[in-house]
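Input.
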Amino acid sequence: MSVDAWHHDVPPGPVPDLAQLRLLVADAADRAAAMLTDAYPAAEADDPLVDAVRMLATSEGASHAAQAARLTGWPEEELRWLVLAYRHGGTGGIAVAIGELVAGQGMVSDSGAGVQIRLGPDGRWYPFTSGRDRWWPAPGAARLPGEAYQAALRTRSLRRAGG
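Output.
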């Protein structure tokens, strides 16, 4: 290639700002570390929604919610709800929050207690509690449905007590 031809190449687009670059570098480092320990599920590697939620769940990512909403098409409030699901259950938490349940017996609700458990694609049960006209992800995903149910009851009790 001649030097003259090089001068006619189209320059790259705008570079992300420093905060965005830091977020991307931190995310890449976290992914690399997870891959080295086999803790990173390859199935989620190409899901832009999971990527966005995972980055928003970091301390640096929260300030990028508006941009993530524009890029994913999900409202900011819904992305924050998915961040909560991710914090309580990782990528499996996101999957059950958006409705990717194991067919057949994927959900058990106890409306009287205000709790629900959902069976995720990873075989774990994820607890949810009711409030403000929706089901909220709760901590305590477990292999056994009884453990997830008890975690949901504990979370519901704490939320009612204001804790």
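Strands lie at 107-110, 115-119, 125-131, 134-137.
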